[in-house]
Amino acid sequence: MKTYTLELCGLRRELPVIEVAPGLKIASFVILGDTELVCRVAPEIVKRLPEIDAIVTPEAKGIPLAFEISRLLGMNYIIARKNIWPYMDHPVIDEFYSKKKKRLFCLSGDDARTLRGKRVAIVDDVISSGETIEAIRRLIEKAGGTVAAAAAILVEGDAEGLEDIIYLKELPVFRE
Ligand SMILES: Nc1ncnc2[nH]cnc12
């Protein structure tokens, strides 16, 4: 299997290069289970964050990073969920289309109330098209919060041109 060597904060990972669409390959970067990497990168992201009152991460791959950043900052974090569940009281929802498929993110009513009037950092593992970040931004604004920062470990592809993103490294995409 072809791999891409990622060097990050003194660590090295061999990322499998995977075809995700005809003629497009990405280096698969998954932090789930990688405690060493999460704990190494989180302080570097924390150093770059502005003043914030709250952290939001989209479900699911960025959750360990949001946990560690929240632990370092001594505050909780909120997960924007991908499904509306019956146990969510008055959820706040953002629906959008991505590659012709309907997607959504939502906040439970409780989490939405927590964000009202807060300066929020959106945290994720990788930012690529920026669609997820924009959906989470709309959701936070619907809840009455303000996005103070969007931060990720890596950006790839189109995201390299997005403005105002905090990130540690760029990840290449491979087009044929
Ligand atoms: N390179 C990548 N690896 C894993 N998840 C991703 N999501 C977007 N880009 C990704």
Rounded radius of gyration (Å) = 16 Å
Mean pLDDT: 96
- Supply the CATH class: Alpha Beta
Instruction: Supply the CATH architecture.
Output: 3-Layer(aba) Sandwich
List the uncertain runs.
none
Query: Got a strand count?
Result: 11
Compute the separation of the termini in Å.
17 Å
Which structural class is indicated by helix and strand composition? alpha/beta
Strand content: 35-45%
CATH topology assignment: Rossmann fold
| Shape type | globular
Please count the helical segments. Answer: 4
Order of helices and strands: EEEHEHEEEHEHEEE
As laid out across the biggest beta sheet, the strand order is: 5-4-8-9-10
InterPro entries: PRTase-like (IPR029057), PRTase_dom (IPR000836)
Domain Phosphoribosyltransferase: 51-164
Organism: Syntrophaceticus schinkii
Protein name: Adenine phosphoribosyltransferase
Write structural notes for this entry.
- Keywords: Glycosyltransferase, Transferase.
- Residues 51-164 form the Phosphoribosyltransferase domain.
- This protein has one domain: Rossmann fold.
- Strand 4, helix 2 (63-73) and strand 5 form a beta-alpha-beta unit.
- 34% of the residues are buried.
- The strands form three sheets. It has a five-stranded parallel sheet, sandwiched between helices.
- It has helices at 35-48, 63-73, 109-115, 131-142; strands spanning 3-8, 11-21, 24-27, 54-58, 78-80, 92-98, 101-107, 119-127, 146-156, 165-171, 173-175.
- It is of the alpha/beta class.
- Residues 26-30, 126, 128, 156, 171 line the site of adenine (ADE).
